[in-house]
Specification:
The complex is a heterotrimer of chains A (811), B (203) and C (470).
Chain A (H helix, E strand, L loop, with lengths): L8 E5 L2 E5 L5 H7 L23 E5 L4 E5 L10 E3 L3 H16 L15 H9 L17 E2 L4 E3 L9 H9 L5 E4 L6 E4 L11 H6 L5 E3 L12 E6 L8 E7 L2 E7 L12 H5 L1 H4 L9 E3 L7 E3 L2 H15 L4 E5 L5 H15 L4 E2 L8 H6 L5 H6 L2 E5 L3 H4 L1 H12 L4 E6 L11 E4 L5 H9 L4 H8 L2 E5 L9 H13 L4 E4 L6 H6 L6 E2 L3 E2 L5 H6 L11 H9 L5 E5 L3 H4 L3 H10 L2 E6 L11 E4 L8 E4 L4 E5 L12 H11 L9 H11 L8 H5 L7 E2 L23 E4 L9 H4 L13 E3 L1 H7 L6 E5 L4 E8 L7 E3 L21 E6 L1
Parallel strand pairs in A: 1-5, 16-17, 16-25, 18-19, 18-21, 19-20, 21-22, 25-26, 26-27, 31-35, 32-34
Antiparallel strand pairs in A: 1-2, 3-4, 3-5, 6-7, 7-10, 8-9, 11-12, 12-13, 14-15, 14-27, 23-24, 28-29, 29-30, 31-36, 32-35, 33-34, 33-36
Helix pairs in contact in A: 2-3, 8-22, 9-22, 9-23, 14-16, 19-21
Chain B lengths: L5 H12 L8 H12 L4 H11 L3 H8 L13 E6 L2 H5 L2 H12 L12 E6 L11 E3 L2 E3 L4 H12 L37 H4 L6
Parallel strand pairs in B: 1-2
Antiparallel strand pairs in B: 1-3, 3-4
Helix pairs in contact in B: 1-2, 2-3, 3-4
Chain C lengths: L35 H6 L4 H8 L2 H10 L12 H5 L9 E7 L9 H7 L1 H15 L1 E8 L4 H16 L15 E6 L9 H8 L24 E5 H5 L1 H7 L1 H5 L9 E8 L5 E6 L5 H6 L13 E5 L19 H4 L10 E6 L4 H15 L5 H18 L5 H14 L29 H15 L1 H8 L7 H5 L3
Parallel strand pairs in C: 1-2, 1-4, 2-3, 5-8
Antiparallel strand pairs in C: 5-6, 7-8
Helix pairs in contact in C: 2-6, 2-10, 3-6, 5-6, 5-7, 14-15, 14-17, 15-16, 15-17, 16-17, 17-18
Classes of the chains: A alpha/beta (811), B alpha+beta (203), C alpha/beta (470).
């Protein structure tokens, strides 16, 4: 029988016939049929290693029953399997007795106790008692293998899950088996910690308590935990997670395996930043600027704070108000603010992006792709930020697809990225010139041109550098639209619910449902009392208008322009000049500290609703704990302000809001509340429909470098001064202090040695920084990360320029 | 960070070049490192990782699997007394006892003068010549207590011919450039070797 | 033998020239047997020339017809194994398994030290016949002299045009790369050998695929052959398959090298006729071992390397023929016989082997990693007088988790014990785990009374009491 004749094979498991896929491992087929075979080393997202031998079952392929490890045996037609035979049971008892030979049985003090596969399977399949009376192996009790993970080698059963994950999934083989035989142990190299962005996953997949996470150690017992399924909004990937609390405090997030998005994995930032929600530094009541001392904020009550806010909005008039931010919000909260701005204030000056993203029409109008599309595409073309730093799980998914040979990753950019090790090609270009490089490639006889033209292409498009404007990205999109019409797009936007915010109209000129302001849906005109005619201002323009005195009241909707807007000078001047700054936030950020009125909002885990990831996939976020103090949901704040301004949003609950979204947003028609509340949101409801007619404006050209300066490239790092990271005690010290990286030849040319402090000069600022030689940096450029604690690139950037050049000088 | 001497770095590069994938040179390079230093230092593992394109942790994983790689200083002469069956049947136990008392150290340790490290070893493929031992992986056959004492005396005298620990083969393989076929990454080979395809083996 | 000309006979330690055909040890009589000069003077590299005059398929057929059984332990016919390379998948590699480390085994080292060119010529013939484009000669780490001899031989062979580009002016080109191990018995397992050659920890790979011929080094088709196997090739090509099969039996033709160690009068390495030579011939024959030392009684012997179940005098008349040994409960393995006379402390002897395999476990499979060490710990207690009668049962029960079902053993007619045929079943990937149990099982089955004597008097002690060494 040839392979193509077989679409399915029939296997008998415990007397019942089941259908299985050819080539599928027996353990996976049994899982799908609801027959659980105990296991430790097997993990459905990693290649089988057959180490623990726990999954031995009796397999008969015509030559009589034989004990076979079901994680290693592919199903075959007519196979007869008995997972409950006497031989199987004896093997299971024997293996468990072996595993416990050296296991310390310190379950009462082990974090894993109560949710431990070794404990559970010993109860279910174990021998009852051990006959081992000799001395057990001894190792130093938990040793930190990174800032976040501790390793107890006595508990370890050497299943190869963590080490396999580090090598196969994360691509960070920094933990490894060492020694041999009975002395085998997992270890790092001396002084080279397991500093992977994905280290927390090893804790989650450890089948014993060998790996524990510093933020969770001794925090709770599994039986004390309450759990909700939710979606991570740390970045815009929308990873499925379980959020767990104990006594009304978030204590742990776990990755949940969904096929469409994260495959169960989380980055450490998303996994551990729950600490920020619990932070004592949270804003829990409103504040206003002290009339007697303009330098400080004083506590106030909601009534006065809202009244002052309403007054500031009224005083400024519709065109004098600007609303910046909203990516932190759920879709429902974003909708309420979108409606509040247009329908009640009467302004279209609203932008969820902070001048560091993509034009909304690109996000909403380019032909969409899913993550799965990317992982199955012949080529994934990355023109954008370092995905490992900004969309870490997208990096993981693409890495997985690329290393399995399912897709080829090609990136064009000015700086080295974390994708390079698995990319088919990493093409270096000058900052701002990706479009030109791509055009040249496509018109060359490079086989890659043919690969791109003839095969399926998913483009991951974003801003390669915060020090360049969106123009180069628009230019790249134009080239791709013209030359590769079959290509689809995933926007590489990073802020939590930025996609949902844009969908809800938190962008000048756009209304909920991916429609333009000049083309409102019939329903929206019924539900909204007013829709501005004129397109409003984006973040950069709002800040400029504030500087020019045209915008009087700035509302920062979970936004911190002083840290996140590319151009700190402009942001600072705008905040300074604005007559009133109203900040709605969880923490006193740099910008909030400058605000006149501070309204405390509920945080992640304290509110429910929906969120939308970069694909346009809607999934639920759920409330797990009671919000602290008098914090309020963002939509309630909008509602309250509307009342005080004499309007009425006519929204009374999140459910209520969703029903209205479904009615007024054409793209979301049919995504009913019932669907949203159903199990469908486990994988997420993909909403890709868009009525945006995309007309790409001709972008500004990138100026030629002057030969004296270095072109500044600035991207974000996973560990930076982000608010939630900075307020998570376990994470806040992980961000590196800033240094500017330059190619050694450039340094030599300038007569500067690596590691010295230099003067960095741009049109915006002159400041001293440490310069480090790094030959991965393209010559003629300088790389300075954005928003690192102690010195961000935003001081040097002019947001109105297409690119930014700097000069460095010896002190 | 550099560990290898310039001379050994040249040898290292030559060794790496013999394999279709650089990582295959890991064990040969660990031997080279041990030859240079007498044991395998952390610096050596780090540089080997750089040379073959792996993390230091992976080098450690491989290095620590194999018994010959010592990750701490050992004696100039490592004396391995075989303790497996054939030698045990022929008196390896007594020989070990004698060696321990003669050297004044327990198996697994090094004499205070740093000259000798005594180890119990597993089968050395000289079973018909039991009991046997190795000095720096060079065999001594049918060793009696007296012969053991003589051996120690020989090792402290000049011209005994046993190189210091770390040096295995004193002859290196050398592939002359004009004779070398050269290693090719497997993914770059898609057709049958020329002497086969002429004979028409089916593709 | 004395009729041979040349330098005086100086055998290597261990080698004993006996009165049988000499296929692979023919040059051992020369003091300079390892030099290119001696090799060329004694028909060396003539087989290669002959092979190059034929097409590869013909050479492969010759080897297949010779039924050359692998000499590494498993005894699989080399010519058949070569045929497992999937057609059309290139490149293919040859990996020479010179990692000889099975307890009792001593022959490959002799072949490498005393006749390295014969091995090199064998490698070249294999590469030519199967289209293997690069050869890796993996020598055990703890064999400095073999490494030196092979390195010198390779350097000379390259210079002389036997190895490398356009060998002997033909279009046949192959590099032979000398590679050393670093001390790990398990690397002798062919998939672990490949892992090691890729720079990894030498841990056996999952099966299937059962043969690296389909997926081996770098995922490519790879032939892994033992040193002795390859050393036979020049003779087979030179003299033809028919001459080879005329020696020995049809199913086990040719000769094989066997090391006899332990309590015999003349322990040594013998080249014996396959298939027909019996253990009695070997142990008692005057041109071979000449009997048990001090004319003691033979108590037991390990017939095929440390991992083989043991035989007693009852099995002395069995020949070196796999098809006869298996049903009698053991295997021929790597040609290594370890002899125990009547004075032997059997439990202590078993411990030397169990300790070996426990120590050499790679640590991958739980039954081997945990069970092997546990077995050693229990047995050590028994041997040192701290065991209880319960421990004797425990030894078997622990072993049964490594090898479920009846474990093979020899018959003991006097005790009414019938043989359980080879092979065993196992819960591990490779044979290292079962090998830790094999000596215990054999010793306990054949000599239970010796174990009972060791634990006598401890009947009433609790396990805790015996575990704590007081």
């Amino acid at each position: 029988m040839s392979d193509q004749d077989v679409s399915e094979v029939t296997v008998t498991v415990n007397g019942t016939e089941i259908e299985a896929q050819p080539g599928e491992m027996l353990i996976a087929a049994a899982d799908r049929a609801g027959v659980h075979i105990p296991r430790f080393c097997y993990h459905e997202r990693m290649s089988p290693v057959g180490m623990c031998r726990m999954c031995l079952v009796d397999v008969d392929t015509g030559r009589g029953p034989m004990l076979q490890p079901s994680c290693m045996v592919p199903v075959s037609e007519g196979m007869v399997v008995d997972t409950e035979s006497e031989d199987t049971k004896r093997a299971q008892e024997g293996i468990l007795e072996f595993l416990l030979v050296n296991h310390p049985l310190d379950c009462p003090v082990c974090d894993k106790g109560g949710e431990c596969p070794l404990q559970d399977q010993t109860l279910a399949y174990g021998p009852g008692e051990s006959r081992f009376v000799e001395e057990k192996r001894h190792y130093e009790k938990p040793i930190p293998i990174s800032d976040l993970v501790h390793l107890d080698r006595e508990r370890c059963i050497l299943c190869d899950r963590c080490t396999r994950f580090a090598d196969e999934i994360a691509g960070d083989p920094l933990i490894h088996f060492t020694e041999r035989g009975n002395s085998t142990q997992v270890l790092t190299f001396p002084d080279e910690p397991f500093s992977s962005y994905f280290s927390g996953n090893t804790v989650q997949i450890c089948p014993v308590g060998a790996l524990t996470a510093a933020p969770y150690r001794f925090k709770a017992r599994p039986w004390d935990l309450e759990e909700n399924e939710s979606t991570c909004t740390t970045c815009s990937m929308g990873c499925r997670i379980a959020i767990q609390s104990s006594r009304n405090e978030l204590v742990r997030y776990l990755g949940v395996d969904v096929e469409s998005v994260n495959h169960g994995w989380l980055c450490d930032k998303g996994r551990f930043n729950f600490e920020a929600v619990n932070s004592d530094e949270r804003l829990t009541s409103p504040y206003v600027r002290d009339p007697d001392n303009q330098r400080q904020l004083i506590g106030t009550d909601w009534g006065s704070a809202l009244a002052s806010s309403a007054e500031a909005i009224r005083r400024a008039g519709p065109q004098g108000v600007g609303i910046i931010g909203g990516s932190r919000l759920t879709n429902e909260d974003a909708y309420a603010w979108s409606k509040f701005a247009r329908s009640v204030i009467g302004t279209d000056n609203i932008d969820a992006q902070l001048g560091d993203g993509l034009p909304a029409e690109l996000v909403l109008g380019l032909p969409p792709a899913t993550i799965a599309d990317a992982c199955e595409a012949d080529t994934v073309l990355v023109i954008g930020p370092d995905l490992k730093e900004e969309l870490a799980i997208l990096h993981l998914r693409l890495r997985g697809a690329a290393t399995k040979g399912r897709t080829q990753v090609v990136q064009i950019g000015a700086a080295a990225t974390g994708s390079e090790p698995y990319a088919q090609r990493s093409i270096r270009c000058q900052s701002g010139e990706a479009a030109k490089t791509l055009s040249e490639l496509l018109s060359s006889d490079d086989p890659l041109a043919k690969q791109l033209r003839d095969g399926s292409v998913v483009t991951v498009l974003g801003r390669s550098s915060v020090a360049e404007s969106a123009d180069p990205a628009v230019a790249a999109a134009s080239v791709i639209r013209a030359e590769l019409p079959h290509a689809t797009f995933l926007p590489a936007l990073r802020r939590g619910n930025v996609r949902g915010a844009l969908d809800m109209g938190l962008a000048p000129g756009f209304l909920p449902g991916r429609t333009r302001i000049d083309n409102p849906s019939a329903m929206i005109t019924q539900k909204w009392t007013h829709i501005p005619k004129e397109q409003g201002l984006g973040t950069t323009e709002m800040l400029q208008a504030a500087v020019a005195g045209q915008i009087e009241t700035l509302i920062l909707l979970g936004a911190d322009p002083l840290s996140d807007f590319p151009d700190r000078n402009l942001a600072a001047e705008a905040i300074q000049k604005a007559k009133a700054v109203i900040a709605i936030d969880n923490f006193v950020t740099s910008s909030v500290a400058q605000a006149d009125i501070v309204l405390p909002a509920t945080a992640y885990g304290e509110q429910s609703g929906t969120t939308t990831n970069i694909e346009g996939r809607i999934s639920r976020v759920t409330q797990k704990i009671t919000p602290p103090g008098s914090t309020r949901d963002d939509w309630m704040i909008a509602t309250e302000l509307a009342w005080r301004l004499g309007g009425d949003l006519e929204l009374s609950s999140k459910e209520d809001i969703w029903r209205e979204i479904e009615q007024v947003a054409p793209s979301h028609a049919g995504v009913t509340l019932e669907r949203v509340l159903s199990h469908e949101t486990f994988e997420g409801i993909l909403v890709q429909q868009s009525s945006i007619d995309l007309t790409l404006l001709a972008p500004r050209d990138t100026p030629v470098a002057d030969g004296y300066g270095l072109r500044l490239i600035s991207g974000r790092k996973l560990w930076d001064a982000a608010t939630t990271t900075a307020h998570s005690p376990s994470l806040r010290h992980l961000a590196e202090s800033p240094s500017i990286k330059v190619h050694s030849n450039d340094l030599q040319r300038l007569g500067i040695s690596s590691g010295t402090e230099v003067r960095v000069i741009s049109t915006r600022a002159t400041e001293n920084l440490t310069v480090v030689a790094d030959d991965k940096v393209q010559r003629g450029t300088a790389v300075l990360p954005f928003n690192q604690p102690g010195g961000s690139a935003n001081r040097f950037i002019d947001a109105t320029a297409v690119i930014n050049d700097i000069r460095i000088e010896t002190l | 960070m550099t560990f290898f001497t310039d001379e050994n770095l040249v040898i290292a590069e030559e060794i790496i070049g013999r394999y279709p994938k650089p990582r295959s040179a890991m064990i040969p390079l660990l031997h080279l490192a041990q030859e240079q230093e007498g044991w395998v230092t952390d610096e050596a593992m780090t540089q080997i990782g750089e040379l073959v394109g792996t993390t230091s942790a992976e080098v450690l994983g491989t290095c620590s699997f194999y018994e010959m790689f010592k990750r701490h200083p050992v004696g100039k002469y490592v004396i391995n007394i075989c303790t497996t069956m054939s030698c045990a049947l022929m008196g390896a136990g007594d020989l070990m006892q004698h060696a321990e008392s003669r050297l004044g150290v327990k198996s697994g340790s090094t004499t205070a003068d740093g000259l000798f490290t005594l180890e119990g070893a597993e089968c050395q493929a000289a079973c018909t010549e039991a009991p046997c031992l190795q000095v720096n992986y060079r065999h001594q056959y049918r060793v009696t207590a007296d012969q053991f004492d003589e051996l120690l005396e020989e090792l402290v005298s000049p011209d005994h011919g046993v190189p210091d620990h770390g040096v295995l083969s004193q002859i290196r393989q050398h592939i002359p450039e004009d004779r070398s076929v050269g290693a090719v990454p497997p993914e770059e080979v898609t057709i049958a070797p020329v002497w086969l395809s002429e004979d028409g083996e089916t593709q | 033998m004395s009729e041979m000309t040349g330098t005086p006979i100086v055998h290597a330690p261990g080698f004993i020239a006996n009165e049988t055909p000499r296929i692979v040890t023919a040059r051992f009589d020369y003091e300079d047997s390892y030099t290119l000069e001696r090799y060329e003077a004694t028909d060396g590299y003539q087989a290669l020339r002959k092979a190059l005059d034929q097409n590869p398929e013909e050479v492969h057929n010759e080897v297949r017809d010779a039924t050359l059984l692998g000499r590494g332990g498993a005894g699989f016919p080399a010519g058949v194994k070569w045929g497992f390379c999937p057609p059309g998948v290139w490149p293919r590699y040859l990996v020479v398994n010179g990692d000889e480390s099975e307890p009792g085994t001593y022959k490959d080292r002799l072949l490498m030290e005393l006749d390295p060119h014969q091995l090199i010529e064998g490698c070249l013939i294999a590469c030519y016949a199967v289209g293997l484009s690069q050869c890796f000669l993996y020598i055990r780490g703890e064999m400095a002299v073999a490494q030196e001899r092979v390195a010198q031989a390779l350097n000379d062979a390259y210079e002389a045009g036997y190895v490398g580009k356009n060998i002997l002016g033909s279009d046949f080109s192959v590099d032979i790369v000398l590679h050393w191990g670093a001390g790990a018995y398990v690397v002798g397992e062919e998939t672990a050998l490949i892992e090691s050659l890729e720079g990894n920890r030498g841990m056996p790979r999952l099966k299937p695929p059962y043969f690296p011929a389909s997926i081996g080094l770098y995922g490519q088709p790879t032939i892994v052959n033992n040193v002795e196997t390859l050393a036979n090739l020049p003779w087979i090509v030179q003299h033809g398959a028919a001459a080879f099969t005329a020696i020995g039996t049809e199913s086990s033709p040719g000769t094989r090298m066997v090391a006899v160690s332990g309590h015999v009068k003349r322990p040594g390495v013998y080249e014996i006729v396959n298939g027909t030579t019996t253990f009695r011939d070997l142990l008692y024959g005057n041109d071979m071992c000449g009997g048990i030392r001090d004319d003691n009684q033979l108590k037991a012997f390990v017939p095929g390397g440390g991992s083989a179940p043991w035989f007693t005098p009852d099995q002395l008349d069995l020949p070196f023929e796999a098809s006869q040994i298996g049903p009698q409960g053991s295997m021929l393995g790597s040609g290594a016989i370890m002899v125990m006379d009547e004075t032997t402390d059997i439990p202590a002897a078993a411990l030397t082997l169990t300790k070996f395999y426990a120590h050499e476990s790679c640590g991958k499979c739980v039954p081997c990693r945990e069970g092997g060490t546990w077995l050693e710990q229990i047995l050590r207690r028994v041997v040192t007088g701290r065991g209880t009668p319960r421990d004797l049962e425990l030894l078997i029960e622990v072993g049964e988790t490594i090898c479920p079902g009846d474990f093979p053993h020899a018959a003991v007619p006097s005790k009414g014990i019938e043989a359980v045929p080879f092979p065993y079943r196992m819960t591990t990937i490779c044979f290292v785990g079962p090998s830790a149990f094999a000596p215990i099982h054999s010793a306990l089955t054949l000599f239970r009374e010796e174990f009972e004597a060791k634990v006598a008097g401890n009947e009433n002690k609790t396990m805790i009491e015996v575990a704590v060494d007081v």
